[in-house]
Amino acid sequence: MAKSALSGSHPLDTMLAVSDVIQNERLARLYARVLELDTPTVEELASRSSSSQTTVYEDVKHLVEIGVLKRVTDSQPHRYSARRVDMTIQTGEETFQITPTLLVALAQRDSNDNIELYLERHEVSGLATAIEYARAYTKSEMTARIMAREQEIPVLEAETILQELQEILLDAENEISTELDIETLDADVDERIGE
Q1: How many angstroms separate the CA atoms of 51 and 40, rounded?
Q2: Where among 37, 60, 82 does a domain terminate?
Q3: Does residue 3 lie in a domain region?
Q4: Where does the record place the DUF7437 domain (predicted)?
Q5: Domain count of the chain?
Q6: Which residues contact 2 (CB under 8 A, 6 or more apart)?
Q7: pLDDT (tens digit, 9 = 90+) per residue, 20-68?
Q8: Last residue within a domain, chosen from 82, 110, 126
Q9: What whole-number distance in Å separates Cα of residue 5 and Cα of residue 14?
Q10: Per residue in 148-185, is it b (16+ CB within 10 Å) or e — as a string?
Q11: How far apart are CA 134 and CA 75, in angstroms?
Q12: pLDDT of 7 over the 80 cut
């Protein structure tokens, strides 16, 4: 049996567990459904899935073993909750944050053409970067024009992905506020233009 990867284990174990979810769309969709439903049973998850109940059971078992999900009840039917993934990965000068938002966005690639197209063009690392911009955009600290310039992409592409990711952020990250602070936004824009 695999050691729990998110409950106090080595950061590399955590990275490998999360990598497993990032690379497997079915596992990402399952994680996103558990996050959405809060504490579902395998039966509840299977009823919303195109996979068989046996496959969902095996996937839940795997996600529990690697520590991405946890069983929250001792009695049958067992209920499961998603562990909050929060990792920062630094490669050279770039830093990427892995949060539930990234996993949910990856889970939506089949049903969201804009996310799928962005992933085709910029891969998972580009989507992780776009989520950082979307987090600032949602807090009114970023504009699509700034993201487009900094990432060297068309403004329409930046605006489209920011709006898609903003919806996911508001659902996946409860601490995100959408209060508009014009003075802070203006100061940030002026600072970035001066760079």
Answers
A1: 16
A2: 82
A3: no
A4: 109-173
A5: 2
A6: 65, 66
A7: 899 898 999 999 999 999 899 999 999 988 889 999 999 999 999 988 9
A8: 82
A9: 5
A10: beebebeeebbbbbbebbbebbeebbeeeeeeeeeeeb
A11: 40
A12: no
Task: Specify the 3-state DSSP secondary structure of 27.
Answer: helix
CATH number, domain at 47?
Answer: 1.10.10.10
Tokens 């990427």, residue? 96
Residues 6+ apart with CB under 8 A from 105: 115, 127, 131, 164, 165, 168
Sequence-distant (≥ 6) Cβ neighbours of residue 68 within 8 angstroms = 5, 6, 17, 18, 20, 21, 27, 31, 82, 83, 85
What is the pLDDT, as a whole number, of residue 49?
A: 85
2 falls within a domain: no
Residue 162 lies in a domain: yes
